[in-house]
User: Fold these one by one.
Assistant:
Number 1:
Amino acid sequence: MTSPIHNYSEIGKLKTVLLKRPGREVENFTPEMMPRLLFDDIPYLPMAQKEHDYFAETLRDNGVETLYLEKLSAEALDAGGSELRDQFLEQMLAESGYPYGATHDALKEYLDSMSNQDMIIKIMAGVRKNEIDFHPSDLVSAAETEDYPFYLDPMPNLYFTRDPSACIGEGISINHMTFPARQRESLFNEMIINYHPRFANKGIHVWRDRNHNTRIEGGDELVLNDHVMAIGVSERTSAHAIQDIARSLFKNSQYDTVLAVSIPHNHAMMHLDTVFTMVNYDQFTVHPGILGEGGKIDTWTITAGKGESGLQLQHRTDLKAVLKDVLNLDDIDLIPTGGGDPIIADREQWNDGSNTLTIAPGVVVTYNRNYVSNELLRKHGLKVLEVISSELSRGRGGPRCMSCPIVREDL
Ligand SMILES: NC(=[NH2+])NCCC[C@H](N)C(=O)O
């Protein structure tokens, strides 16, 4: 049986990818809610959708099959029947703060009146209090949340399908994410893997599931080749989770090396892929801002070992040398975002100039607004497919963040 998931690199010809078209969730919030929802602005939805459609079209024009999270979720529910629908709804409500009680019942009744597809779209978009004819009488509602307009918060980050899960080899990590604003997202991925006819009962290995307290997000998980991963130690991914997934991969898969790369912990660089992506066999984009004096950065090469943790570590600080060693290459081309000009580098990194989606060796999709970095990529021999990006970039994520590769051709 061929596995529905097959992803042994960052650069192999992309065959199938998971996307989410931005919906009501990206405008269903107030400026006050933005920091908590991890957004920096209020996007203009019709334009965000147009841009996203352009991105998806670019992928399809290049032979990529595009799957949509919102559609797969509804199809999984269709396949799972009323039992699954009930179980999914209960879990979603519990994780939204309503494990039981009158509000739980009112929300359940409201959502249960919808078709599977409408219910999924509604949960993603959020439920406002004024949508339901219900007046809670509990103390929390009266004393703490009376003025808050939502029962269920919107999930505006869903179009960054990279993060809630990551396909590695013929398996997947379904992630326990860092901030409450995103933690419910991976429930959709879990349901799809377990119940969607395309994925269910196909022997997919779950390297690490979402039932953990330690946190990891797909933006930090880079599949460098068929036995080496790079994982960011970042605002979103803890060292603890990296050790945990490394142990699982070493035990159950052909992966034998995890390169942990420590990056600054801040919103502009929340994941490794916002500062470092692989674009060809021996080429990478890198934001100069992550490199310290003399180009140094903390990395740990993790392999299986006999120590207490079952792992052994080698600490090194020369990124280029480390990459050459783990990838067994004579040389590596590190392409600096913004051409190394500190002002341009910071500006373009902010709008995801380092966040390229590689769709074949040396062929990348990038935001058109990062024109200095794009030009430099071309000078380094890459084919650059630019996509329009005024509104999508307001969510702080680029082409790699907006895509979850499911199948890539082997190199
Ligand atoms: N893989 C990525 N870099 N994803 C970007 C996610 C951006 C999103 N607003 C967040 O803060 O979570």
Note: The chain has two domains: 14-67+156-408, 70-152.
Number 2:
Amino acid sequence: MAETRRWELAAHRRLEKGKVVGVVVLDGWGEAAPDTFNCIHVADTPTLDALKKGGPERWRVIKAHGTAVGLPTDDDMGNSEVGHNALGAGQIYAQGAKLVDMALASGKIYEGEGFKYIQQSFENGTLHLIGLLSDGGVHSRIDQLQLLLKGASEHGAKRIRVHILTDGRDVLDGSSVKFVELIENDLAKLRDKGVDARIASGGGRMYVTMDRYENDWQVVKRGWDAQVLGEAPHKFQNALEAVKKLREDPKANDQYLPPFVIVDERGRPIGPIMDGDAVVTFNFRADRMVMLAKALEYESFDKFDRVRFPKIRYAGMLQYDGELKLPSHFLVAPPEIERTSGEYLARNGIRTYACSETVKFGHVTFFWNGNRSGYFHPNLEKYEEIPSDIGIPFNEQPKMKAVEIAKKTRDAILSRKFDQVRVNIANGDMVGHTGDIEATIVGCKAADEAVKIVLDAIEQVGGIFVVTADHGNAEDMVKRDKSGKPLRDKDGNVQPLTSHTLNPVPIAIGGPGLQPGVRFRSDLPSAGLANVAATVMNLHGFEAPDHYEPTLIEVVDK
Ligand SMILES: O=C(O)[C@H](O)COP(=O)(O)O
Ligand SMILES: [Mn+2]
Ligand SMILES: [Mn+2]
């Protein structure tokens, strides 16, 4: 069926071609009731407030979590990968989390090429499992790791080493202890069955291993030293003691725990990665595993000194980059996100500029284009990255590069060299993840200022804007009870919510180029992020392909 589809898009019956369309994605910017823990509400955000007044015809909310973005259930919060995939692809795909669930439930994971490949190391080598240890469901899920541990041992793994990355970002800070206990319990059961299974190393996800978009290779190096070389500044006899001890530092935070290795009575690391071993990175999400995948797989590599490059059999939980075919072995085939709006528009001559700062750059390029790196049409596209701050938590620089991104985008708009400009403004999300309420308020204000710069430029060229978000975060910064009341400890302190939320996100359209009769339809109350691509195509003057989720807009006579 897909092969017979044409790439050429039909002209829209009512909407003209030739307007510059500015698509702004506010990362981590959900819609929620006014509240002191709603940083978007508390912050001074005149631009977004004005857009909201355009509802219901030019402002509304759309779903950004759960099944609306291809996640297993409606209890799953949205995230950048699935959010930008849906925004760019215009279609809802079963995402990595769900595909892994299905492969584990059916047992097919053990019959695939990837598992058969690593299995060859089980006789004489160790199986290493590296990944994020939590039930956040954004990059990985602990229940999938538990099933994989059991399944791998039943399929011949005799010696297993788990290299954990503590979370505190997609889940509450401090929850690392309970997740380590859970896995230690499972490993003890495996040991009872004669499998030599232990946690071998660990560290906080933002400080060890899980950098993204090559922002800071030192993060990956710290992980490499612990996981592969068995070297780290902290040494403990077991992981529970490690996490508990490291958390005694008053400034400790699961996201940033320093690297540690587990050692035996004689102080020797119990699980460095050696020649002949098998390695699985058990995150299903790509962005924060690609860098490690390169270090594990590429013979030639110059990002840091690996000291030792063990000859291993390596598989990702998924293939993380479809264009680079990385890693070349994987346990579960990733969703085949095809016929994205980026590809359609490039093939129909639309000139596109995409911009963000490093920590979100791949969101408006790689994720937007269906986890595909590179351009569709280099002559028509320009992707520009503004370097992010390195090595500081974002609550220390909450304005991030919002204004710089907006100014570059303004220049791109005013150059009139592009038909679409697409940006991601990171503050609501990146500062929201720190749990620092004051800083998040500052970040939201900066994001609003950046939006104004882009909208002013759109105004100058007679263009159209679409302002939306990929999922919630900054609009709710506190852990709540079932009735929605903030939970307080005995001293009256609230527990900051560092994660994303289940809230819907706003979408606003406008600009001088928007024809007077264009408004949001009222017959799609459950629409979600995947409905945005068809909307944007319409605003470029094209009908959307019929396999896309329906457009959010209609044109009425005025
Ligand atoms: O990777 C992260 O920073 C978080 O786990 C999820 O945030 P994102 O989906 O907004 O990137
Ligand atoms: Mn995001
Ligand atoms: Mn986030």
Note: The chain has two domains: 20-94+336-555, 97-332.
